[in-house]
Each structure stands twice: as structure tokens, then as C-alpha cells.
Design a protein that fits this description.
mainly alpha, membrane, Erv
Length: 84
């Protein structure tokens, strides 16, 4: 099992040099919670960055003059044949 002195050495938030301070268990707990939170947030942001998402929207032209909007689509498929 992990001893209390090893957990106390994890304290990230010491403001005075190590030789002049005494590590606390609450400071170590706060450090561990902060580090886990940062890793979780980093992982969530990395997952969101690596996720491919596509968004399509269609807007209907509701012009008051009664004319229709002409839409032309030019779609090219470069590789149509399966590769062997």
C-alpha cells in the first residue's frame, strides 16, 4: 500500500522551497485531483479534435417575387473503378 509520506510528496502547489516547507495531505490530494482533471480535459479535447464530423444544411429560398432559385451541382468522382 502507498504510504502517507509518498502521497504528500505529490503536492504541486508549494510556494516556498522544499527544504523550508512540510508537505500536507490536503495539498497532495488537491494536486492529484487537479492532475486527473487536466488529463481528463486534455483527453476530451483531443477526442473532439480527432473526431470527424460533417454538417449539411438545406435552406429553402422563400423569396417574395415568386421566382425559383436555380441550383446546379457539379460532382466528380475521380476513382470510380475498384483497385485490384
Amino acid at each position: 500500500m502507498i504510504s502517507s509520506s509518498k502521497i504528500k510528496s505529490v503536492d504541486f502547489y508549494r510556494k516556498i522551497p522544499r527544504d523550508l516547507t512540510e508537505a500536507s495531505l490536503s495539498g497532495a490530494g488537491l494536486s492529484i485531483v487537479a492532475a486527473l482533471s487536466m488529463m481528463f480535459l486534455f483527453g476530451m479535447e483531443l477526442n473532439e479534435y480527432l473526431t470527424v464530423s460533417t454538417s449539411t444544411s438545406v435552406v429553402v429560398d422563400k423569396s417574395s417575387d415568386g421566382e425559383f432559385l436555380r441550383i446546379e451541382l457539379n460532382i466528380r468522382y475521380i476513382h470510380m473503378l475498384p483497385s485490384n
